Amino acid sequence: MAIPLFYNLRNLMIRKTTTVMTGLGITFSVAVLVASLALVNGLRTVFASTGHPLQLLVLRKGGTTELGSLIPEESLTVLRTMTGIVVDAKGGPMVSEELVNVTNLPSVDSPKGMNVTVRGLTQTGVQMRNVHLSAGRWFQAGQREVVVGKSVAKHYPTARLGSRIRFGKGDWEIVGTMDGGQSALNSEIWGDFNQISADYNRQEAASSVLVRATDPVTLDALKHSIEDDPRLNAIAIAEREYYANQTAAGAPLEFLGIFVAVAMALGSGFATANTMYAAVSRRAKEIGTLRTLGFSQGSILLSFLTESILIAGFAGVVGCVIVLPLNLVTSGVGSFVSFSEIAFRFRVGASSMAPGMVFAIVLGAIGGVLPARTAAKKEIVAALREA
Amino acid sequence: MTSYLPLILRNTLRNRRRSALTVASMAVSLCLLGVLLVLYRALFYGGETTPGQARRLVVHHRIALTQELPIAYEQKMKRIPGVCAVTHLRWFGGTYKDPGDPKNRFGQFAIEPETLFNVYPELKISESEKQAFLSQKTTCVASRSLADRLGWRLGTRIPLVGAAMLPVTLDLTLAGIFDNPDGNPVLYFNWEYLRDSLAASDPHRDMIQQYYVEAANKDVVSDIASRIDAMFEDSPYPTKSEPEQAFLLSFVSFLGNLKLFLAVIFGMVTLTVLLISGNMLSMSVRERTREVGILKSLGFSSGEILGMVVGEATLVAIIGGLVGCACASVFCAAFAQAMRNAPGFVSIVRGMSLSPLMAMLTLSIAVLIGTMSSLVPGFNAARVSILDALRYNG
Q: Is B392 exposed, middle or buried (0-12, 13-18, 19+ CB in 10 A)?
């Protein structure tokens, strides 16, 4: 027969201070773990919501990033005439030549400056993305005007609507703020293709080309015909995939977070064992009494194990709760693909909390198993006689 | 006080399992604290600065690292008093064989062979290999880590296909292998070869991306930096000059707001150790209440009792701290070893090691935590009245 859970709860209540002190160690370990997972979740959300499922990003063969790619004008002409590309409202193909570069702006977090992606594109390019203006207007062709993503406007004090920023060969006026939902586009600055490429001495070519296929089957065919065309010397990557790969930007922080959480857990595991051993020796008489009443060794083992898991479980819940406010925090991390900062919001949800809780319970079980065994193995008579 | 040492020791050893668990738990946490301290120092203060490093500064375009600077700046900078040598660098960023294989990715830089080895005496190369590199424009040199990784030997042909602004194919021959202290996998080739491969009308032909300037001594570095920046202030290519160490550290901001992240974790770990050690002590002092009564009736003063509790905590903390420091130094060494082949700016982390200063700091934190955590149980024990203590029952 099992010893009622109530018995354990009462015990924990009586030794409040010890329970809380033991639990807090576990709480902090869980908090660090959940926070690290929330960071990666946040980044993943950003990259997963960037890109259209039917769009291909065309880069120079061997190129892995837009920044290190080059598509000459002749290739553009070839791409425009390929079959399987959607035709827009004006009757032109949905082919967007783009020039990508980075500029350095002082941000709230690092006043010394962070890299921000600058993208030169045309009307077609804007139309191919799921963005809308949240303030101001779009840049005009032939003008030194740019539109900034909402995260850029928020994190970079010098890049707000109405102000002027300096990159390339001179000043640019910020005429609008765009909202790209949760996507990475919020961390970019957009301007007219011709203006921006002139500033970077790249009139002769684009960095990358974005094309939209009519349907998934055509997408595959289009990818192959781009990659097989000897005139192009290019590769085509699904836009979604290109962005999904950038989630790796969070890897160093994730690694550090998990490392710290595991080390802290090891420390609090020892502490839990300590507390449970003390509980076992203090309650020797009780254990003897319980055994006399007919509770089996198994019930005693289970009872002490449960108590340890209870401490850890409570601590885990508290750990998850204290990181909840992180949901309101936005931060930025550098991506080595775009060589610039990507803004993201921490996401503390079921997918980060569940591992945190499992972690806590496992911790409680490991810390409690040896003391529980000691408790179960006590000789009845000796236990009753103990102080 | 020392006369109580045997008693303190006996008390510590009485419940060996508890003391061992406490020491283990403190050691793990303090090891973590030590590693975080080292990491923090490496990332935000750049570990130790070598004398050569302290005399160098990096000059790049004010707006972004990737933007270009004209080669003509070199002559102008050389005329600034206090400047010993100037060398320049351009990131090539081409591809070698199959770029999909991470093994084939490494830093490729167009440099000036003559001055590079003067400004960077840390790069060790044999005189004959250096001469071969200087005499043949189409040759290159690679770091030992890179040559070993790709099995290159002197004379190996290395084709590099250019990207972005530099759409040229370079056919290089390995003329030398050098040792670099950070062990980065890098390849240097003659910038002149790149320049000659570009068309005469190419706007990128006479452009480079970074200058490395060597100052006569470290005291004039910041003065030279402001002079350079002032000189090109109003040109179409304004510059930003920073000491080499500061330049390397600027990449750290790429990891996100790491400073805050580390500070929060540091606080949490410290608090956890405090709780663990405080908890252990109060448990053991509470169990000993009756003994405290006996000690008091034997004539021990409250102060002496407090001293014994604090002494016990400090002893445990010192042992935990020592074990923790040992673990941290092993861990740092292992981490540095694992990061040996990591690319780019991660090189700052590669030199991670637990210096005596950091070890002392970790130990001091341990002692401080031990002492602080013993104060509450210690005062409680010292304050208890003899009668209550003797009457205390488990």
A: middle
H-only helix segments in chain A: 5-14, 16-48, 73-80, 123-127, 150-155, 193-199, 216-228, 239-244, 251-282, 284-292, 297-323, 350-377, 380-385
Rounded to the nearest 5°, which phi and psi values hold at A115?
Answer: -80, 140
The B residues from 297 to 336 touching A (CB cutoff 8 Å) are none
Does the pLDDT of residue B394 top 70, yes or no? no
Interface test with A, best of B23, B29, B60, B270 (most A CBs within 10 A): B29
Nearest Cβ partner for A271 among B25, B282, B287: B25
A82, A195, A112, A284: which is closest to B394 by C-alpha? A284
Q: Does A63 touch chain B (CB under 8 A)?
A: yes
Testing the interface with A: which of B33, B279, B284, B372 to mutate, by most A Cβ within 10 A?
B279
What pLDDT, on a 0 to 100 scale, did the predictor assign at position B131?
Answer: 92
Spell out the residues 6+ positions from residue B252 whose beta carbon is closer than 8 angstroms to its own: B43, B44, B258, B345, B348
Q: What SS3 class is residue A170?
A: strand
Chosen from A197, A270, A311, A331 to mutate, greatest number of chain B CBs within 10 A? A270
Contacts of A62 in chain B (CB under 8 A): 95, 99, 161, 163
**pLDDT tens-place string over residues B92-112:** 888 888 777 778 888 899 999
d(CA B275, CA B350): 33
**Separation of alpha carbons A164 and A184, rounded Å:** 23
User: In chain B, what residues touch A200 (CB-CB under 8 Å)?
Assistant: 67
**How much is the pTM?**
0.80
Q: Is B28 on the interface with A (CB under 8 A)?
A: yes
Tokens of B349: 């982390």
Give me the numbers of helices (H) and strands (E) for chain B, helices first please.
16, 11
Looking at residue A62, its amino acid is G
- Cα separation, A364 vs A358, in Å, equals 10
Q: What is the pLDDT of residue B245?
A: 77
Give the closest of B63, B279, B287 to A271, CB-based.
B279
Q: Cβ-count burial of A49 within 10 angstroms (0-12 exposed, 13-18 middle, 19+ buried)? A: middle
Interface of A with B in 12-31 (CB under 8 A): 17-18, 21-22, 24-25, 28-29, 31
3-state secondary structure B136-154: CCCEEEEEHHHHHHHCCCC
Residue B242: which region, alpha, beta or left (left: phi > 0; alpha: psi -120 to 50)? beta
